[in-house]
Amino acid sequence: MRRAHCRCETVRNFDYEEAAEKLGCKARFLRDNIRRLPHQRMGEAVVFCDCELDLIRALHTFVPPSVEALLNPPAPSAAPSEVPTLHSIRPSKGRNTARVS
Predict the structure, then answer these.
(1) Mean per-residue pLDDT, 59-70
(2) Residues in Cβ contact with 14 at an 8 Å cutoff, skipping those fewer than 6 apart
(3) pLDDT (0 to 100) of residue 5
(4) Contact 57/23 with Cβ under 8 angstroms?
(5) How many domains does the chain contain in total?
(6) Does a structural domain hold residue 90?
C-alpha cells in the first residue's frame, strides 16, 4: 500500500536512535512526542522513513515574518475601479452650521 506522503523509491526505515541522529535531536524527544509525529508502527516497533523525517523537519521549522515576507511577497493590488464602492463614498465637507444674520 502506497502512503500519500511517501516518495521514497526504496523505503529505508530508521529506529528512534537513527532517526534522532539524522534529525539532530535526541531519541527521547521522538519518544516523548511520537503521538504528534508522522511515523510507522509495526507491532511494538516504531520506525521512520526519510519522508517522515522531512515532515518532522517541516513541522518544527520556524520562519520569521520578515523572511516569510521575502518568500511570499504581497500580490500587486488591482487597478482601482472606475466606479467607487458604496463603502468608499464619503462627504467632501461637513455641513455649514453657521447662520448669517
Answers:
(1) 89
(2) 22, 47, 48, 49, 53
(3) 74
(4) yes
(5) 1
(6) no
For residue 41, give its domain range.
Answer: 16-62
User: For residues 4 and 37, is the Cβ–Cβ distance under 8 A?
Assistant: no
pLDDT digits (tens, 9 = 90+) for 19-44: 999 999 999 999 999 999 999 898 88
Burial 51-87 (b: 16+ CB within 10 A, else e): bbbebbeeeeeeeeeeeeeeeeeeeeeeeeeeeeeee
Number of helices and strands in the chain (H, E): 4, 2
Specify if 3 maps to a domain.
Answer: no
83 in a domain, yes or no? no
CA–CA gap between residue 62 and residue 69 (Å, rounded): 13
Total Cβ atoms within 10 A of residue 37: 19
Task: Write the DSSP symbol of residue 73.
Answer: P
Q: How many whole angstroms separate alpha carbon 71 and alpha carbon 55?
A: 20
